[in-house]
Design brief:
7% strand, Zincin-like, mainly alpha, 8 helices, three-stranded mixed sheet
């Protein structure tokens, strides 16, 4: 048996269900701690100059979304103080995009002003501008924010979604 056929037959070996579930749980916990570590490290790196901003950022929890995403990489929920990241980014191949993505969500938190938003909503025909000039200026402080935008525009996010769907189909088969 050569290396290639040995590798192929090893990839077909199925673990018993209880071991697959245990492995899945361990993998899930490590992915969650990865997300939390990146969140803390990024906040400290970019917002340590203001203790109030850090407190505001740390009042949010960062979690993996349970919903599959097609268009949205992450969502910042100002009511539940939660940032949900698309599960498609759990793949280690895409972990490099987590830091600039989480920084992007932190920019939303830093600039969020509930009174200003409510006032804007009441004005007829006025939309809330989430990614205005002030936001863009703050976001550009991160060295990889432009690279993240380029990755998304060049189809990187779509590839991540397709890859995730393919892996999900394999796991359920």
């Amino acid at each position: 048996m050569n290396y290639k056929t040995a590798k192929q037959s090893a990839s077909r070996v199925q673990l018993p269900l209880y071991q697959r579930e245990a492995f899945s749980e361990i993998k899930e916990k490590s992915c969650q701690s990865l997300l939390e570590n990146i969140w803390r490290r990024t906040a400290l790196q970019y917002f340590s100059y203001d203790v109030a901003l850090l407190a505001k950022i740390f009042s949010y929890k960062v979690v993996w979304s349970s919903r599959k995403r097609k268009r949205t990489l992450a969502v910042c929920d100002f009511n539940s103080f939660t940032v949900r990241v698309a599960p498609e980014l759990k793949d280690p191949l895409f972990h490099r995009w987590l830091e600039p993505l989480l920084y992007h969500e932190m920019c939303h938190i830093v600039l969020f002003d509930r009174e200003k938003i409510e006032k804007r909503k009441q004005q007829r025909g006025k939309r809330v501008q989430w990614h205005g000039p002030e936001f863009k200026k703050l976001e550009r402080r991160h060295p990889f924010s432009l690279a993240l935008d380029e990755w998304i525009k060049s189809g990187g996010w779509e590839r991540a979604v397709r890859r995730y769907r393919k892996m999900q189909a394999k796991e359920s088969a």
